[in-house]
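Record format v2
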Amino acid sequence: MSVAALVEAKSLTRVFDVSKPWLSRVIERENKAYLKAVTNVSFSVGRRETVALVGESGSGKSTVARMTVGLLRPTDGTVSIDGIDMWATARTAERQKLRRRLQMIFQDPFASLNPRWRVQRIVADPIKAFGLAKDGAEIEHRVGELLRLVGLDPKDGAKYPHEFSGGQRQRICIARALSSNPEFLVCDEPTSALDVSVQAQILNLMRDLQDRFGLSYLFISHNLAVVRHMATRIGVMYLGRIVEMSPAAELFSAPRHPYTRLLLDALPDLAMSGRARRPIEGEIPNPIAPPAGCAFHPRCPWAFDPCRIDTPELAGAGARLAACHAVAAGRI
Amino acid sequence: MSEPVLSVRDLKVAFPTRRRTLTAVDGVSFDIAAGEVLGVVGESGAGKSLTGAAVIGLLEPPGRIVGGEVHLKGQRIDHLSTEEMRKVRGKRIGMVFQDPLTSLNPLYRVGEQIVETIRTHTRLGEAEARERAISLLQEVGIQGARARIDSYPHEFSGGMRQRVVLALALCAEPDLLIADEPTTALDVSIQAQIISLLKRLCRERGTAVMLITHDMGVIAETADRVAVMYAGRIAEIGPVRDVVQHPHHPYTKGLMGAIPTLGPKAERLVQIPGSMPRLDSIPPGCAFNPRCAFAFDRCRVERPEAMPAGQSKAACWLLVESAARSPAGAPA
């Protein structure tokens, strides 16, 4: 699979400096503080595939998304698109070419559209930036086509973003993302600001567009049900690491990592209402001072000695990987 | 059945504007019995939060109740003066809001806030009130309550803060608890903890709960009965199992199909075309008729009242139609 992969992320790590200002540090005699938002995350996205990363807040999933699309430089590790390393390429021209092929859809359709620009200009911006059209008439034609594609009227191009509802704005964001003919879209919580009936419209639209243009998605979400609906493969993140990576169906039918098991148990769901919910004890630890060994061990009912010392690596047979000592030892 | 704790009859909330009066809640009626959890679910703009605010008399001006009655244990409370209402609020009706950080005063220790509330509503002295506060904090699952009572709100995590808010809401032993999106700001693993806590506390005390949320999953797992709101009206109300598994109103059917679930995977989500009408353009007749696949002439002219449909009640003319066609009265 990795041979044909379109996007390949290898041992991505990102550290943020969260130290106090120098003077405060000197006065309070504190050291510099670092937050490891993402540690050693690897995944690949094949053509026409949807890979999802799911996790609670602070698990590092948005940081991975931003590194994958090139908005954030990884502290360590590489992202390559079609074999070209995104950060090693020194020449801007080559990177520019690469950039055209990947786009991003953000969570908040209210914050990600310029309120002073008309929709026409917003959608046309990538076309102009990458020089994909000869003249104004062609741009206008293309924008109309894109708006129709996402279920809006070409006449809507003359309006401003505030004249649209949340769902319609997200459609505009999708039209903008598609305007450079990308192959790969990174979607960071694309529907979590939307109502369920609107969410269904957007998710269906995204599936249709994928079929039509052969797109690949990296889909970031905290909602397991949405992820199950969209993804072919799912990575579950906890405190900056992928703890389990599995094909979607298997992840839900036979979760391996204890965190995934407990998360599925804790999830309120229509199809399983009436069953007893078992909440996960405790809270997500502070990422500045994560627990030693496996970060999940303080909350894990299956934790044993190695979990408190060694950080488990992703391991397993075939496409089903889990980072857990207990799973590796066959205890669960 | 004994007298309901809360009885709302034909409640109307309106916002006068310069041009016209906008009716945001239009003829809402429901009862909540002691120890019962009524879920109020709807998409944004459905009027669910306004219904809750109207019940506790916290409508933001210029919004006001323009019709209907609210009875708390037989006493009419919708026309009380501000001063009288303040005594009811807190003492007989507790509240939990979405964001625990904004419902706690950041400048006071949590203990001070709880003690103040207890002393406002009971005759307990300072020391007794403090003991009571500590036992309340223990009851909502805050470990080391005796030590943590003197912490400030920012020293607690989101889930812990919501526990403090819950303790605050329950400290005067209210008859009714109104929880407006109590878990929306929390991660799923924490959400499950808060939901089960809320359920346990209210069952033990026989508190009636009005649980307002947009998350049907939370409703399915928590509520006994559910009211589905659309454009300021109740579209369907009934036992949660019936509404979730055998919805009668076309809007409820669409809503259930639109929610991705963890159950058997659907290829496509059910899509309700369009979006909820704005308050200034609610169509005549049934508010849902422009988006409804089954709408016929009567729906566009005459507004349906809640009609019995199985165990539930739904406001839909199809129920009358199908009853007329088939003597069994089973709706399609």
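The interface with chain A takes residues 43-44, 157, 159-160, 187-193, 195-196, 214-218, 220-222, 240-241, 244, 254-266, 268-272, 275-276 of chain B (CB under 8 Å).
The first strand of chain B starts at residue 6 and ends at 16.
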